[in-house]
Amino acid sequence: MADSDEEYVGEVTEDEDDFQVTHNDRTRSKRRRQRGGAEWELSRTWETLVEGADGTISSTVDGLLEAGKRKRLLKDTTPLQRGIIRHLILILDLSQSMSEKDLRPTRYLLTLRYAQDFVREFFEQNPISQLGVLGLRDGLAVRVSDMSGNPTEHLTAIQALRTQEPKGLPSLQNGLEMARGALFHTPSHGTREVLVVFGSLLSSDPGDIHQTISTLIGDRIRVGIVGLAAQVAICRDLCSRTNGGDETAYGVVLNEQHFRELMMDVTTPPATYSQRESASSLLMMGFPSRTVESSPSLCACHSKPSRGGYLCSRCGSKVCSLPAECPSCGLTLILSTHLARSYHHLFPLINWVEVPWRRASRSSACFACGLPFPPLPPEDQWQTAENQTKGMSASSRYECTACQNHFCIDCDLFAHEVVHNCPGCQSKNTGAGVPNDGMDITA
Amino acid sequence: MNSVDASEHYELGTTDLAPSLLTVIVDTNPHAWAALEGSLPLSRAIANILVFINAHLACNYANEVAVVASHSHKAAWLYPVEQASTENGSADHDGDVTMNGDSDGTAATTTQTNKYRPFRIVEEQVNRNLQALLQSTAATEVRGNTSTMLAGALTLALSHINRRTIAWAVEHGGADLEDTAAEVGTGAATTSGNRFSATGSDDERLQSRILIISVSGSSDSAHQYIPVMNSIFACQRLHIPIDVCKLSGDAVFLQQASDATRGVYMALAEPRGLLQYLMMAFLPDQRSRRHLVLPTRVDVDFRAACFCHRRVVDVGFVCSICLSIFCEPPPGNACLTCGTQLDPGDYGATPALLPRKKKKKKRVNGASATGTPISTPTPGP
């Protein structure tokens, strides 16, 4: 950890001579950014608390809550080209260091729980993607579940790990090599990704891991790591090299909540870096209809008798669930709804803007849910109120720039994270043209 | 339903089941209702729906209802409307409830004094707002417009459900959405680990469901496809069933909506029986439905329409970048939506000809021609 040593020296020189301060500050801030989520060291939340007029801090606390919601919400809405068809290998550390209890109940159990959440959320967000799970135990890479598009298989496989105990040392290299093998045959139009949950501070490898990293780059495999203990140099190196110099793929968890956030961030399809990275292609897919038979018949995928199912639109084999690959002719079978599920990544809803008091008089209640907004204060208080609130709207109103309706923070959050629709834009026919002020709620 | 049954009454006091919120989306496209005039005029349909709403409110004293109109050019709230909220029990700034709620009702209050108050409030507001909505509709807006703003209505309904769920959780302390996220996932059986997802125990939160009374076709609402699908997925995530009661028209998305969210889909053969259908099929809430055999449609049309010719396909081609569906490889192999140059793979490749066959032909055509490796040694000019 040469990193921390350097920083310590830097702080000493800062004390010694003043003219180096600016220089040091810059390098230090840069370094801090690279370290991921270590900003908490210097944030003193109690200093931002201001007593309200009534002598309580409830208004500030409410403001902080709202600012927190808002911060989580603001994201880049540039319509990036994203890798919607993903192939991801999830590598779980199952070594001795996972039995630590610094994350409750243990690192091991929490990781398994979040891994299950991750699998569910991953298929929710990426319905036509493939996932596989590996484990690092006793110096070996163990296959937990094979690459497949069926979440239940992964969930049961991860559930089965609960009865086992973490054991031995992990080998990052073995895990990466096995993941590389699993991703080797995947088609070029999809992404190839590896997500490692790494609880150890070492990797006992049989060979040169740098060589493995070079082959991963050659195979266009991106690696992301969630570290549970502390930052490890080889992990940072691995993430930055396989992601084209971008180190944000490596995060070290601060607490349980941060752990979860880091894992869930990976469920969003990654932006495609360049055209040549993934050759786009036209995929042939079948859209089967559901059938219900009078007598049970065996399905082609599991050979289990069932009455319902989907018939492959090319060869007529019966599969029991979608999305799937036809076991007999290899055609990808999906529902059109699976495709539609990914559309909100491709056409994201624009961020809503904060409304200053000046324009706030237009609305008295949230357009979508009818929650009344706080009334307008006298004009001379506008400036002070707006200075107090950072990262949130002073008037508690948020405006969609397309339809110019005002919404509350909860609807803002709900619209951007769950529905991905703007209630205002969808409620008005754009073809009608005439702006109608007679909307029941805003009037 | 349980609360109606007297034998369950004492048990109810101890368990205190969570109330349910019913959101009714009424399609009010004037064209479609004009076509239905002979069998079921709008006024009678609204009366039937109001009876149904009253039945829902009567099931549990804490049950709630919301009504959204999905009109031809906009979606609007019919109930609750905040502007007239002084009478529906919501407090003003001092926390007092104003007591003169009857004064601004347009309905003749003298005839309705004996009506149960929650029923009357809903009826008055729905009638008044619907009238205002229909009167504000200009003839030009209606002309040739046979679609309905379903996406907007669904989004409004979902926003309201979200608001009520948060409020209910705050009031009752129990299932706070933020906290439940941490609890979800302990068992393998729970379905989704999202922040907004349902708790493992469904009984402890506000039960919400959406009922869509559909009359107009959605054939020209192709531009609404993505928003409608987004709303459907949101419902699926939040475990909100979408029930569909189709009076006329052809609602393609709605079949998928009720199927994806495990709601009830019914196409009424006889619109005059609306109230009966509503009472029998749509009144039970999620808890009661577990014990019932529900009328569901088994053959759901899942086929996709291609983006190029609007043909319904069962084998199609999908652009790997924007996921557009085509019925045949697009001209020039460039995606019609995003313009990406696509590699069609092996599709449409003609079978490779055997090179020997070609050579044979060439030799026959020009026997004296040079170039074939076999013939080089023989001819010697």
Characterise this structure:
The complex is a heterodimer of chains A (443) and B (381). Chain A has 443 residues and is an alpha/beta fold. Chain A has three domains: 86-265, von Willebrand factor, type A domain (Rossmann fold, 3-Layer(aba) Sandwich); 285-344, no CATH class; 349-427, Herpes Virus-1, CATH 3.30.40.10. Helix content of chain A is 35%, strand content 17%. In chain A, a hairpin with a 6-residue loop joins strand 8 and strand 9. In chain A, helix 1 (2-16) runs antiparallel to helix 2, helix 3 (58-73) packs parallel to helix 14 (409-419) and helix 4 runs antiparallel to helix 5 (151-161). The relative contact order of chain A is 0.10. The model of chain A is unreliable at 1-39 and 431-443 (pLDDT under 50). Chain B has 381 residues and is α/β, with parallel strands linked by helices. Chain B has two domains: 17-289, 3-Layer(aba) Sandwich (Rossmann fold), CATH 3.40.50; 303-362, no CATH class. In chain B, 35% of the residues lie in helices and 12% in strands. Chain B contains twelve helices and ten strands. In chain B, the strands form three sheets. Chain B has a six-stranded mixed β-sheet, with helices on both faces. In chain B, helix 3 (42-59) packs antiparallel against helix 4 (117-136) and helix 3 (42-59) packs parallel to helix 10 (274-282). Chain B is elongated, with a radius of gyration of 30 Å. Chain B starts with 8 loop residues before the first helix and ends in a 16-residue tail after the last helix. Chains A and B meet through helix 4, helix 5, strand 7, strand 8 and helix 10 of A and strand 3, helix 4, helix 6, helix 8 and strand 9 of B. Strand 7 of chain A pairs antiparallel with strand 9 (315-319) of chain B. Chain A: Residues 87-266 form the VWFA domain. Chain A: Belongs to the GTF2H2 family. Chain A: A zinc finger (C4-type) spans 312-329. Chain A: It comes from Penicillium alfredii.
